[in-house]
Specification:
Phosphate_transprt_permease, 2 domains, transmembrane, mainly alpha, about 290 residues
Length: about 290
């Protein structure tokens, strides 16, 4: 090996070692921060876990209370948002994959959907505030559901589009050659093949809105009492955590930590389920 080649070899090894050390340090730093956040949430949240947390509604400072109304309100708001955004997202994703796949119109819609997918949630909250809250002059569950649905919608559109395009073309051609109408091929063949992926998109959308606070500040706000009216503010966990965490009362702060632990555990459960579905879908396509 000549002297020049040996110099180049040593320089590349040095650059490789430096890059390896820097990337490894960054990974360890990120992992340490994540473990720190999880440990703080678990240690402080677990201390406030009790049956009262799930049975009693929120109460004034110093009185026994829980998060029952906030938990029920969060479930209603999130499921309602998923309920209206999921069918619309599946239909839009189906149109992109099956009818506008290689058209300029389809590319434009995908571009707009990607912008909506990466839009900050607070911007969507402000949009719904202008569209619904100001004309109605009332914060409401309806406005909150609309804002959270706008977060779920692009996720479902994107996953439905990608999952349907992953279905082999031969499967479509085989079904169409038997004289089956296009809509039956889509609903009874393609949807079955892409079912795991579409379900994963819905779960990821649900996980994303479970802890969203910013859109609710401008649309639903919060309610200290039980309410099931869609045209009035409804109690919810993210806003309760936000308000209790910054309060000076220790019992409210403990409830905020318990709420944060519940949200973290729920998002972790949904994320693991979505990953398992992705793995199952990938295995079935291999």
């Amino acid at each position: 090996m000549s002297r020049q080649a040996e110099r180049i070899y040593r320089r590349r090894r040095l650059v490789n070692v430096v890059a390896l050390v820097l990337s490894g340090t960054a990974a360890l730093f990120g992992l340490a921060m994540l473990c720190w956040i999880l440990w703080t949430t678990i240690s402080k949240g677990a201390a406030a876990l009790s049956p009262h947390l799930f049975l009693l509604p929120t109460a004034p400072p110093g009185e026994p209370g829980g998060l029952a109304n906030a938990l029920v309100g969060t479930v209603l708001i999130c499921l309602s948002a998923v309920a209206w955004a999921t069918p619309l997202g599946i239909l839009a994703g189906t149109y992109l994959a099956e009818y506008a796949n290689y058209t300029r119109r389809g590319a434009t819609i995908r571009f707009v959907n990607d912008i909506l997918l990466s839009a900050p949630s607070i911007v969507l909250g402000l949009f719904v505030y202008t569209l619904v809250v100001r004309p109605m002059e009332q914060f409401s569950m309806f406005a909150g559901v609309l804002a959270l649905g706008f977060i779920v919608l692009p996720v479902v559109v994107r996953t439905t589009d990608e999952m349907l395009r992953m279905v082999p073309t031969q499967m479509r051609e085989a079904a169409l050659s038997l004289g089956i109408p296009q809509w039956k091929v889509t609903t009874q063949v393609l949807y079955r093949a892409a079912r795991s992926g579409i379900t994963t998109g819905v779960l990821l959308g649900l996980a994303r809105i479970s802890g969203e606070t910013a859109p609710l500040i401008f649309t639903n706000t919060n309610n200290q009492y039980w309410s099931t009216s869609p045209f009035a503010p409804m109690s919810n966990l993210p806003m309760t955590i936000y308000e209790y965490a910054k309060s000076p009362f220790e019992d409210w702060q403990q409830l905020a930590w318990a709420g944060a632990l519940l949200v973290t555990a729920f998002v972790l459960l949904i994320s693991v389920t979505a990953r398992l579905l992705i793995l199952k879908n990938k295995t079935s396509h291999d």
